[in-house]
Write a structure and sequence with these properties.
Layout: H1 8-17, H2 41-48, H3 54-65, H4 71-94, H5 99-118, H6 123-138, H7 143-163, H8 168-180, H9 184-197, H10 202-214, H11 218-231, H12 236-253
Length: 261
């Protein structure tokens, strides 16, 4: 296996410039039902209420979340997404520790839990609860609290995988969590499992590339990002992959400032 090399200065710069690991939060990334896959129950529900907007949509979701199955689970999940998205938007300006942002995350968590309570087979709220605890871990400086958050994130990803061991989002997010914990063998195992089920998984190829880049195996990183671009040419993962390919190639082609001195 041939490893591309860059100068030490370029390697340091690369760590700061690369767009980081990609997880999948259904409320933000959204499942499209494309790629030949049958639409999920939630996607069908979203299509059914698609004509509602603004306050009418909010009122309808709250009414259905207090009603009976199966709409109760779907509505609670979508309400959780609304709180989760609002928390992320507010955190950009205020930070994740701001009380209003914390309250929004708590509301999102409560709605996702209500969704699971209404339908214990629904994957989407499980994956988003994992992402929510993942986000909390990333914003926590205290190591004990951080580990507790990561443990909870892992538990929800594994809960989703018990329902569907082939779920791409849950397994890729679990692999990304392991990668941030520097548990590289476990991360590789998760990404390879995804690719065994779907060789065209852009999420798995992207995160494999990040792992290679962090290990300074740049040729393999570029190859994995190229596969991600091919699998998701018009999507966010494909765009991030293309940008990272350019960053790596620009840095590798940059002149070494230590030469000639």
């Amino acid at each position: 296996m041939r490893r591309l090399t860059v100068t030490a200065a370029a390697a340091v710069a690369m760590v700061g410039l690369l767009l980081g690991m990609v997880g999948c939060k259904d409320g933000k990334a959204g499942a499209s039902g494309g790629g030949g896959k049958a639409p999920t129950a939630i996607e069908r529900f979203v299509k059914r209420i698609g004509s509602l907007q603004g306050q009418a949509l909010d009122d309808s979701l709250r009414h259905m979340a207090a009603g009976g199955p199966p709409d109760r689970a779907y509505a609670a999940y979508l309400l959780g997404n609304r709180f989760y998205t609002a928390a992320g938007d507010s955190a950009l300006a205020r930070g994740w520790k701001e009380p209003a942002v914390v309250a929004l995350l708590d509301s999102a968590e409560a709605r996702f839990m209500a969704s699971i309570a209404a339908d214990s087979t629904l994957l989407e709220p499980m994956v988003n609860l994992g992402s929510l605890w993942d986000d909390r871990a990333e914003q926590t400086a205290n190591q004990i609290e951080r580990q507790d958050c990561m443990t909870k994130a892992e538990s929800f990803y594994r809960l989703a995988l018990r329902v569907d061991p082939k779920d791409e989002k849950a397994r890729c997010n679990l692999g990304s969590l392991y990668l941030r914990q520097r548990k590289h063998p476990q991360a590789i195992a998760e990404f390879k499992t995804v690719l065994a089920n779907d060789p065209k998984s852009a999420l798995a190829h992207y995160n494999m590339a990040i792992m290679f880049a962090e290990s300074k195996i740049y040729q393999e990183a570029v190859s994995e990002w190229e596969l991600a671009v091919a699998s998701d040419p018009d999507g966010d993962v494909g765009r991030r992959s293309a940008e990272n390919i350019k960053i790596v190639r620009d840095l590798m082609n940059a002149p070494d400032p230590t030469l000639g001195h």
